[in-house]
């Protein structure tokens, strides 16, 4: 009997506008950048924050999300906080930035800078 292998679903879902933003970032990325990386460093009044930066090397436990315009890496230490989340890019007259719909977040600070799990 043959073993069936099924593709693992992505831990993080990117909207079309988030994918377009990743492509835009990669189009002007510094030399040596292989993608952008999402992590959740400890900061802010609630504990964790979302951070997106250029990355020059993939770490062994990073989750890799391929998009048509470039690769998004999710920090291996942050993945448990982000499973099932949707990452969007939103622009209006006053702000522009990535917005996260995170089912794991139990609360957030008043300014929206950080969240708790």
From TrEMBL:
Gene3D superfamilies reported for this sequence: HesB-like domain
Task: State which residue ranges cross the membrane.
Answer: none
Domain annotation Core: ranges: 12-113
Top-rank taxon of the source lineage equals: Bacteria
Name the protein family: Belongs to the HesB/IscA family.
Name of this protein: Iron-sulfur cluster assembly accessory protein
| Source organism (scientific name) | Sphingomonas olei
Q: What is the lineage of its organism?
A: Bacteria, Pseudomonadati, Pseudomonadota, Alphaproteobacteria, Sphingomonadales
């Amino acid at each position: 009997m043959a073993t069936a292998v099924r593709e693992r679903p992505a831990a993080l879902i990117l909207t079309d506008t988030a994918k377009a933003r990743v492509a835009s970032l990669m189009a002007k990325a510094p030399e040596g950048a292989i993608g952008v990386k999402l992590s959740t460093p400890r900061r802010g009044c609630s504990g964790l924050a979302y951070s997106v930066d250029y990355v020059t090397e993939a770490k062994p436990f990073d989750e890799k999300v391929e998009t048509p315009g470039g690769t998004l890496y999710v920090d291996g230490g942050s993945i448990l906080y982000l499973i099932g989340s949707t990452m969007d890019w939103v622009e209006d007259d006053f702000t522009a930035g990535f917005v996260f719909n995170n089912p794991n977040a139990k609360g957030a600070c008043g300014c929206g800078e950080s969240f708790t799990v």
